[in-house]
Amino acid sequence: MPNRKDDSSEITPLGPKPDPNWLDRSRNSGRTHFRRRASKLERAREDALREWMGPGLARTEILAHQHGAVSAGAVLGQILAELHVGPPAALHELQQGWEKLVGPDVARRSFPAALQGERLIVEVRDSTWLYVLERVQKPGILAKVQALTNGQVKDIRFVAAGRRAPDKPA
């Protein structure tokens, strides 16, 4: 007798457990607009359900097995994660509180431009201030930024305004 894995969760009283996504229209997911229709196999399954259950019940059953709509916020979060960009809320919070964080003199000459992973990119309008911020004030500003972002930001990079080049992902 062959050695078979006994998985009782895969067996139901009516036979093997059905695939929960068997009615999900995923075969033509690469298509858009009017070309995004059910494939032949998906249409055959849906037609069989309509014959068996009637049009009203079949529609309810088909919709119950399809994936729901995905919010734009969830999609944007996935895209930002793939681009290794920090959450926009943290950057917005830093931009709004920048003057209180670093003082009015520094705030007039610098601006938090982007979050790239765990690094805050700060654009500085003057090369003299860029040197001062990088060499003298960086540890103090980093400590304040880390306190504001709960340790999400691990490093700060000061760059000349308009010269920000995208970093390689970590």
Structural account:
The structure is a single chain. Strands 3-4-5 form a three-stranded mixed sheet. A two-stranded antiparallel ribbon has the order 1-2. The protein has two domains: 55 residues, no CATH class; 77 residues, 2-Layer Sandwich (GMP Synthetase, Chain A, domain 3), CATH 3.30.300.180. It has 170 residues and is of the alpha+beta class. It is rod-shaped. It is 46% helix and 14% strand. The chain starts with 10 loop residues before the first strand and ends in a 10-residue tail after the last strand. About 3% of the residues have low confidence.
In brief:
The protein is of the alpha+beta class and 170 residues long.
Strand percentage: 5-15%
Q: Structural class of the helices, strands and pairings?
A: alpha+beta
Biggest sheet: strands, sense, closure?
3 strands, mixed
CA gyration radius, whole angstroms: 27 Å
Report the order of strands and helices. EEHHHHHHEEHE
> Which regions have little confidence, pLDDT < 50, spanning 5+ residues?
4-8
Oligomer: single chain
Shape: rod-shaped
Kindly provide the name of the CATH class of the largest domain. Answer: Alpha Beta
Q: Tally the helices: what do you get? A: 7
* Average residue-wise pLDDT: 78
CATH superfamily of the largest domain: DnaA, N-terminal domain
The appropriate CATH architecture of the largest domain is 2-Layer Sandwich
Q: Order of strands side by side in the largest beta sheet?
A: 3-4-5
- Euclidean distance between termini CA atoms: 52 Å
Q: Give the fraction of residues assigned to helices.
A: 40-55%
CATH topology of the largest domain: GMP Synthetase, Chain A, domain 3
Give the number of domains.
Answer: 2
- Number of DSSP-assigned strands: 5
